[in-house]
Amino acid sequence: MAHKQNYVDKMELTKQQRIAAGLVSERFPEVSDIVVHMTYYQKGVNPVMMVRIVNFLPSRHAYFHMDCMVKGCADGGFDLTSVITKMIKSHKKTGKGKLVCNGKSEGLASDHASIDYEVMIKYNKR
């Protein structure tokens, strides 16, 4: 039962963080679309966990934190907020990089998971 309560608490916290982040249209009125391509990696024999594309339209929350997909990882994930914010401030259209999960858990290596990402931003026509 405690596990279920922890999950409910975590989902409520995430909901609050999404609301606090505001909408893409509010935070970045000059942006019409943000697309993030990600490849999730884990340590092990089959390193590619998942390939994922996430679209952030103006009506979505400007919450750019992606959870770690490794079972048992606590408080980890990948926060693309600073990457996307810097790109928008400099009016860049594309950017690529790699992030390592900073989550902790018994038995997990410090570099247990990572993502390669490519961000594409479309701006409103002036």
Describe the structure.
With 126 residues, the chain is α+β, with helices and mostly antiparallel strands. It has one domain. Helices cover 26% and strands 34% of the residues. It is built from three helices and six strands; from the N terminus they run ααββββαββ. A four-stranded antiparallel β-sheet has the order 2-1-6-5, with helices on one face. A two-stranded antiparallel ribbon has the order 3-4. The N and C termini lie far apart (54 Å).
Count of the domains: 1
Backbone structural class:
alpha+beta
The string of secondary-structure elements, in order, is HHEEEEHEE
Rg is: 16 Å
**What kind of assembly state do the chains in view correspond to?**
single chain
The average pLDDT is: 90
Can you list the strand order of the major beta sheet? 2-1-6-5
- In total, the number of strands is 6
List unreliable stretches of 5+ residues: none
Largest sheet: 4 strands, antiparallel
Task: Please give the share of residues in helix.
Answer: 25-40%
Q: How much of the polypeptide forms β-strand, as a percent range?
A: 25-35%
The dominant shape is globular
Tally the helices.
3
First-last Cα distance: 54 Å
How are the SSEs ordered, and which strands pair?
Blueprint (H helix, E strand, L loop, with lengths): L1 H20 L2 H4 L3 E12 L5 E9 L8 E2 L11 E2 L1 H9 L4 E7 L12 E11 L3
Antiparallel strand pairs: 1-2, 1-6, 3-4, 5-6
Question: What does this entry show, briefly?
Answer:
This protein is of the alpha+beta class and 126 residues long. It has helices at 2-21, 24-27, 81-89; strands spanning 31-42, 48-56, 65-66, 78-79, 94-100, 113-123.
